[in-house]
Write a structure and sequence with these properties.
This protein has about 60 residues and is mostly helical. Helices cover about 75% and strands about 0% of the residues. It starts with a helix and ends with a helix.
């Protein structure tokens, strides 16, 4: 399914009362998921343990 097809399907699944903001928010959400999945596939991730250490340091300040 192309990006355009997914956008159309997404809009069609929203209620008839959906606003421009609702539509925009849903499409941005799905685009963010796609970007995250692409980042994972490209290896652009931070290991879980590294995140835990960073949070531990940040929260102790």
């Amino acid at each position: 399914m192309t990006t355009k097809d997914r956008a159309i399907k997404t809009i069609q699944e929203l209620p008839d009362t959906a606003t421009w903001e609702d539509i925009s928010e849903r499409i941005r959400f799905l685009a963010g998921i796609d970007k995250g999945l692409a980042d994972i596939k490209a290896g652009k991730v931070v290991p879980h343990e590294e995140v835990k250490e960073s949070l531990k340091e940040w929260l102790s300040k």
